[in-house]
Design goal:
Layout lengths: L1 H24 L17 H19 L7 H22 L4 H20 L10 H28 L3 H20 L3 H23 L10 H18 L4 H14 L5 H4 L3 H28 L3 H8 L9 H4 L9
Helix pairs in contact: 1-2, 1-7, 2-3, 2-7, 3-4, 3-8, 4-5, 4-8, 5-8, 5-9, 6-7, 6-8, 6-11, 7-8, 8-9, 9-11
Length: about 325
């Protein structure tokens, strides 16, 4: 199992992402690269992130017909993110068309993930529609916030912030008793991790824009699985989603005027605070003793136990 995780969750995403980004961008051929250099090959990031995550997902789940069909549904979600990312990265779409496609993708992703719960014996039609709308709305909040950041940045610090968000989200899902889903988020983190190094070495504005659809759809998709199919606290889910708009605060003029180091520290704080609280909330729930365990530990030790066997009023000493 360790060998499988090392290969599919770490090695494959890292190597595949690095190969696609370097082959697509060929940044070493540029005469001058600065944070203000527009990136014409922005669609390459969509290809790198989506393919590396999909390869890891398929390797772990076995695909749609494999042993984990629920997590395999994220393959379709990643494919949708790839298509939208390439479209937006290749040629900017009109605002109305861009938002129409985003709303459609967000609702389709939510429907794919929550579909198994839509059976009449589980959820009513009203419940299904409500929760699909909630998840789609959360996806759009994260998506629009991250897209706004990626449009204006070279990508290095944003990729680092997203890697921290993914790492925290993975831990929250693991604490929610769903390690398999947490591992798949780790594959996305691995892809973002190698992106940090490449974008730090060769920064250029807008390089991560096309990868945002896949990142937002897949991250919120996995958080949704943790919330509805495992034991993720609702507060942890909300904190993970709200991290994206919180990051927008680091683009305020008062922050951007600060030195690079101070601005980076503030960004790490902006992502670390909600993510840390989300992980702590999930961990506290995970390690909280169950009522039955607490009752069994205190039974027979409390002087307030009024059961017949404890008071000696039962002639059979608690046995029939």
């Amino acid at each position: 199992m360790i060998r499988e995780i090392t290969i599919w969750i770490v090695a494959v995403p890292v190597l595949l992402t690095a190969a696609i980004l370097l082959a697509g961008w060929r940044p070493w051929r540029r005469h001058a690269t600065t944070d203000d250099t527009p990136e014409k090959g922005a669609w390459v990031a969509a290809l790198a992130v989506a393919l590396s995550y999909s390869a890891a997902n398929w390797g772990i789940t076995g695909g749609p017909t494999g042993s984990d069909p629920l997590n395999a549904r994220l393959l379709y979600v990643a494919a949708g993110g790839l298509i939208l990312g390439v479209l937006e990265g290749w040629s900017p779409l009109p605002t109305v068309a861009r938002w129409a496609l985003r709303v459609l993708a967000a609702f389709l992703a939510a429907w794919l993930i929550l579909g198994p719960l839509a059976a009449p014996q589980k959820w009513s039609a009203g419940q299904t529609a409500f929760w699909i709308a909630v998840v789609a709305g959360a996806t759009l909040v994260a998506w629009s916030s991250l897209d706004d950041l990626a449009q204006r940045e070279s990508g290095s610090s944003l990729a680092l912030a997203l890697a921290i968000l993914g790492t925290g989200g993975s831990l929250v899902i693991v604490f929610s008793d769903l390690a398999s889903t947490g591992q798949l988020v780790g594959a996305l983190v691995a892809a973002l991790g190698v992106s940090v190094l490449i974008l730090w070495k060769w920064p250029a504005r807008g390089r991560l824009v096309s990868a945002i659809p896949t990142i937002a759809l897949v991250l919120v998709g996995h958080f949704t699985i943790g919330l509805f199919y495992a034991e993720m606290p609702g507060l942890s889910f909300a904190l993970l989603v709200v991290t994206a708009p919180v990051l927008l605060l680091t683009r305020l003029r008062a922050v951007t005027r600060l030195t690079a180091l101070v601005a980076l520290l503030l960004r790490l704080l902006a992502v670390g605070a909600p993510v840390g609280l989300a992980v702590t909330t999930a961990a506290l729930k995970y390690f909280e003793p169950t009522p039955s365990a607490a009752d069994s530990n205190t039974a027979g030790k409390s002087g307030d136990d009024k059961s017949p066997s404890a008071t000696g009023d039962d002639d059979d000493y608690g046995y029939d």
